[in-house]
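Before the break, one more example. Copy the sequence into your notebook; we will annotate it together after we see the structure.
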Amino acid sequence: MVRDVSPSANADPPSGGSTSPPVVSVAAEGLDGDRADQGAGVDRSGDAPKVPTPTSPGQAGQSGQAEQVEQAGRAEQAGRAGGLPPEQRRGPVTARGDQVQASTTDQRLLGTRSPASFVHSDPWRVLRIQSEFVEGFGLLADLPPAVTVFGSARVARDEPEYELGRRLGAALAEAGYAVITGGGPGAMEAVNRGAREAGGLSVGLGIELPFEQSLNEWVDLGVSFRYFFVRKTMFVKYAEAFVILPGGFGTLDELFEALTLLQTGKVTGFPIVLMGTGYWAGLLDWLRSTVLGAARIKPGDLDLVTLTDDVDEAVDVILRGTGRSAAGAEAAVAGSADSAADAGTGTGTGVAGSAADAGIGDVPGFAGGTDHTGRPLGTEPR
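Here is what the structure looks like once it is written out:
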């Protein structure tokens, strides 16, 4: 609140005259009392000292920008002292030498809050995010039926998991699927390589990371993203199934996001296959004993995934789960063939009779369609 005190209020009253209170006019509301007193010229030197504030938003913005530049410079120097990669991908941009930055676009978006001037740049970030969606949609819209495969970037070429990925990529290509991976090294490279060698389409969706390499040499069609959430949307939107090879946090993130989308009915007719019984059995045992034991999930939720070591079984689960086999086609017809075709749905994950207990796909907006078990959507509400 801005208060305007008339000069006569501070003058000594005339001899013998009465003292009148100062005239205070309210000019505006919403400002703190300190600013009001400053605007009125009131001396409050006896109060506790206060940190001086800029006199205008423009000065605040300039100060904040200068601080940002200085912080970025320090981060850049620290990164170079620790050794930066010779090449860096920033979305569709490739940077080398002195142009390599110590931080990524995601880090700058999700990091600690910057000065107030940073707020004014967020709308521009929205436009950049929008452009990434447009670029991804435009590139991938004409893909044939595809399967997304996840796995560790740390798999060496002489490890059995590399050969497993290579055989899986080839088998998916021979079944008529394009293969989508994260485009990196290790298991991702193995799957891209197997698909390419078998004559299939090999797709890589890269991500800007501090020490990420370029897309591997076996990618036929590739794009790099700045933001994880944009990239993950592409993984789901343009695939009919997920295959999960042994991997780390990133692989687990993608696995549990897919499970959540299935459990909540956000996607239907979407098989998920875990490859590597020795690697994944412990996780499933924990989910069964601890998470299901505490009633945090339903029994059928565990049947949203198929665990196998067999490449042929994995491909068969996908074919049946997406309605591309004879059994899948029959189930789709039984559950309203037209609606199932529109929704891209089929018969399930290959785990007989268990997924119906999970309450998948009972979202009213999908009324008339079927879920991945062939059951009409909207039945058995959770």
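DSSP finds twelve helices and eleven strands in the chain. The longest helix spans residues 57-82. Try to locate both features in your own notes.
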